Amino acid sequence: MSDAAAITPIGRVTAVFEPDTDPNLRCSHCDSVMTDDDAQCPTCDSPIDWGASHAALRDWTKSTTG
Predict the structure, then answer these.
(1) CB 3.0–4.6 Å: which of 5, 12, 23, 47 could bond 63 by disulfide?
(2) What pTM, to 2 d.p., does this model score?
(3) In what order do the strands lie in the sheet with 33-34?
């Protein structure tokens, strides 16, 4: 996982960027891999707060379009 601490607003599920070997987004609730197309986590069905996930989404986009 990245050195940056994941900040999750209370009661919200966010995307967490994991920049390791294969950059991906993970659910802050269950840690499953997801994509920017997901409105809900494909594993735990929690709705993703993409507004609160802006930094993770930005970093993931930069790493995949590089």
Answers:
(1) 23
(2) 0.77
(3) 15-18, 24-27, 33-34
Exposed, middle or buried by CB within 10 Å (0-12, 13-18, 19+), for 45? exposed
Cα 9 from Cα 20, distance rounded (Å): 24
Cα-based distances in Å from 28 to 23, 65, 66: 15, 23, 25
Task: Catalogue the long-range contacts made by 4-13 (C-beta closer than 8 Å, 24 or more residues apart).
Answer: 6/56, 8/52, 9/49, 9/52, 12/49, 12/52, 13/41, 13/44, 13/46, 13/47, 13/48, 13/49
| CA-to-CA dists, residue 13 to 2, 40, 48, 66, angstroms | 18, 9, 5, 27
